[in-house]
Amino acid sequence: MLLLLICVLSACSSRPDDSIPQSRLPHIYPDYAGVTIPVGISPMNFNIVEAEEDAYVEVEGSKGGNMKSTGCLAHFDVDEWHDLVAQNQGGQLLFKVYVKRSGEWYSYRPFSMYVSKYALGEWGMTYRLVAPSYEIFSKMGIYQRNLSNFDEEAILENTQVPGMCINCHTSNCTNPDAFTFHVRGEHGATFVRYNGKDEWLKAKNEELGGSMVYPYWHPSGRYCAFSTNDTHQMFHSTPHERIEVYDKKSDVLVYDVIHHRILTDSLISTKEWSENIPVFSPDGKSLYFVSARQQVYPEDYKKQRYNLCRISFDAATGKFGNTVDTLIDAESMGKSVTWPRPSYNGRYIMYTLMDYGYFSVWHNESDLWLLDLKTGENRPLTNVNSKRSESLHNWNINSHWFFFTSRRDDGLYTRIYFSSIDDHGKATKPFLLPQQNPLVYYRRLMYSYNTPDFTLKPVKLNAHKAGEAIECDERIETKF
Questions:
Q1: What 8-state DSSP symbol labels residue 352?
Q2: In the chain, N or C terminus with fewer CB closer than 10 Å?
């Protein structure tokens, strides 16, 4: 840390006159070489890891403009960065890095960042920060981040509700005018915001036998799909496996926010199968979910394999269709599907494929896959996946950007990565969520990112009043 500070303070002010050329790329953190970025993203600051004494970086746009940075942390003014990136939309930025070591300057092979023609179209993102163990809740919260800069603020932390778990939050098509999250613990509740009203629902419905979790809004805003889960976890003793989460049972339901009714059907609430993680199609006419045969738990948890299913839904009547279609029979492949997320343009369903179960964050084999609903093609996102867990992905509103969590950085903590999909379904090299000083930030952060979602605008919630509402236990009953 001291070396990094000295490096920044001793920065030069101009490009070195003489340098020794190197044939390789510089060692930087994060690895931003060759990534594709959107206009409006916060500055892509990076640490020059091998710089011992000093460093200098030049940035040139293929369509004009330039910037420079001095010191071992390549950092860029927010406004100047936005101007340069906007000027080069559809082009690229070329980075030239110079490093001083043992009194000598070295120049490295330049690298590019490509500026996408696809806009991001979102103000920012929401996410949960949680310690990477789920046995105790410790400090956690739901936060939001302005993606055009580095501003982060808490929406709600469990310091307002000590000892409780805050989780499972989402907006309707990234618009937080419809917003929900769940609180577990002594004063459990489900928060639902719609049409300017904030309501606190009773967390558990006795007829369901559990709480409403894993929410996903119907595009109309009238309905929100949930599952109700009898969830358990256990800890492995082997180094390559840490935590396993499984459900002894789970069912899918739809909540009518106007009449406080729980809607379900015998086809999506069965004793022989565990239905889980429901999501509506962008047109609201279908409900996707995953379903696995019931097993003997915990003995046979590795036999629990989920398929991707679909049932029709009529928003006018609140009724479900007469048949369930299996879109991906992962069980026959010896695999399991989890976290399906349809793109908002209706073209794709992105999901995570793993060996068994549905709680993918601790499964190193879990990868992102893409089902093309137009052509039927089903394939892994090879350009995106790593040797470690990929999971908990979500789309932006124009369906050309998505982010996901991955443990590829250190194997312990989930971080957020961004990628883009073009008109032909090709994904770009992912980039790590930018920070002002990424090496310091990520090495100090002892929490994992969890359930991220894009947000069209900031979420407005009075945390103090929300804490009082949770503590007072006044709840709206849900009707089955």
A1: E
A2: N
In a domain, 477, yes or no: no
What CATH number corresponds to the domain at position 38? 2.60.40
Beta carbons of 346 and 281 less than 8 angstroms apart? yes
* Residue 126 CB-density burial (10 A; 0-12 exposed, 13-18 middle, 19+ buried): buried
Q: What are phi and psi of 299, to 5 degrees?
A: -55, -40
For 71, how many CA atoms within 13 A lie in the half-sphere containing its CB?
16
Query: Is 201 found in the same domain as 340?
Result: yes
172 and 307 both lie in a single domain: yes
> What is the reported pTM?
0.94
pLDDT band at 245 (very low <50, low <70, confident <90, very high): confident
Q: CA 430, CA 35: separation in Å to the nearest integer?
A: 6
Read off the tokens for 64: 């004009």
pLDDT surpassing 80 at residue 13: no
Q: Stretch 235-245: mean pLDDT, rounded?
A: 62
Cα–Cα distances (Å) from 399 to 4, 393, 405, 423, in that order, read 39, 12, 18, 10
Of 73, 91, 115, the position where a domain reaches its end is 115
Which pLDDT does position 166 carry in this prediction? 87
Q: How many CB atoms lie within 10 A of CB 116?
A: 19
> Which residues constitute the domain of residue 33?
2-115
Predicted confidence (pLDDT) per residue in 178-208, tens digit: 999 999 888 889 999 999 999 999 988 777 7
Contacts of 424 (CB under 8 A, 6+ apart): none
Residue (of 14, 20, 22) closest to 102 by Cα position: 20
Determine the pLDDT at residue 92: 98
